[in-house]
Amino acid sequence: MPKVTFLPMNQICEAKEGESVLDVAINNDVPLQHACGGFCACTTCHIEVKSGEEKLSPMEDDEEERLDRVMGGSLHARLGCQAKVHGDVVVEIQNIGHGH
Ligand code: FES
Fold first, then answer.
1. Which of 1, 81, 84, 99 is most deeply packed, by most CB within 10 A?
2. What is the reported pTM?
């Protein structure tokens, strides 16, 4: 099974092939925000990919547009709800949620 490592807490989670990074976070009580519920409409789920970028599903146009607006086009930024996991990745959460 693919593994997703969440920074900065360094939590390692098992993922099912094709699950989004947000799904993995929710299933493992990782505090990744998702104000719009995973519909690519809020950007609170944004993450910085530290390694394994090629193991994530490619970026769609609407995701890219959203990210451009919040991150100024950071090369390694993704929306957690849009990035599907197909292998081991390490991601850093940009908006840490409160509580679990
Ligand atoms: S949860 Fe809103 S854009 Fe990902």
1. 81
2. 0.92
